Amino acid sequence: LEAASMTDPLTGLRNRRGLELALKQFDLLDQRYAAVTLDIDHFKQVNDQHGHDVGDAVLRFLAEIMKECSRPTDVLCRMGGEEFLMLLPETDASGAGIAAERLLARLRQTASPTGAPVTASIGIACSDRYASSDATFKAADEALYQAKRAGRDRVVLAPN
């Protein structure tokens, strides 16, 4: 029951409660991390054109790609809707950028349940540059929206 309370039932990734537990563990260990926020581009169109069952399959598809492109120590979360978060422990901006670009490349090369690849916009912020996890996530979110404004299907690193 405890594991179920921290897991998103659709994707099998952690949910917000699971994220909070991971953050407490990071704080206890004084562990730095990169926060990688990602959002599926034009997800509403997937649901509108293919139906919500295919939309759900696309969310599960992205979760599987995230698992394949991450390390066992990374924390993968579905924050809600088509919004996801990866916490990459002991990873700097360069390493997070490499991981994010690898994820985007995999998405571009793989047909999703729609029959075509999907893309994502990604924002990155590193915890050692901010006073709190909330500030880190806010910076990563702002970088994500900058990626969307710049044309989507790209990675943007939050400024210092």
- Which sheet architecture does the biggest sheet show? 5 strands, mixed
- Order of strands in the sheet with the most strands? 2-3-1-4-5
Query: What is the fold-level CATH name, i.e. the topology?
Result: Alpha-Beta Plaits
Q: How are helices and strands ordered from N to C?
A: HHEHHEEHEHE
Secondary structure class reads alpha+beta
Number of helices: 6
Beta-strand content bin: 15-25%
Radius of gyration (Å): 15 Å
Give the total of beta strands.
Answer: 5
| Spatial separation of the terminal alpha carbons | 40 Å
Poorly predicted ranges: none
- The global form is globular
Question: In short, what is this structure?
Answer:
With 160 residues, the chain is α+β, with helices and mostly antiparallel strands.
Explain what you see.
The structure is a single chain. The protein has a single domain, classed as Alpha-Beta Plaits (2-Layer Sandwich). With 160 residues, it is of the alpha+beta class. α6 links the parallel β4 and β5. Strands 2-3-1-4-5 form a five-stranded mixed sheet, with helices on both faces. α3 packs across α4. The longest helix has 17 residues. The mean pLDDT is 94. It starts with a helix and ends with a strand. It is 48% helix and 19% strand. The radius of gyration is 15 Å and the shape is globular. It is built from six helices and five strands; from the N terminus they run ααβααββαβαβ.
Helix-strand blueprint:
Blueprint: H1 2-5, H2 16-28, E1 33-40, H3 43-50, H4 52-68, E2 75-80, E3 83-89, H5 93-109, E4 120-126, H6 133-149, E5 155-157
Parallel strand pairs: 4-5
Antiparallel strand pairs: 1-3, 1-4, 2-3
Helix pairs in contact: 3-4
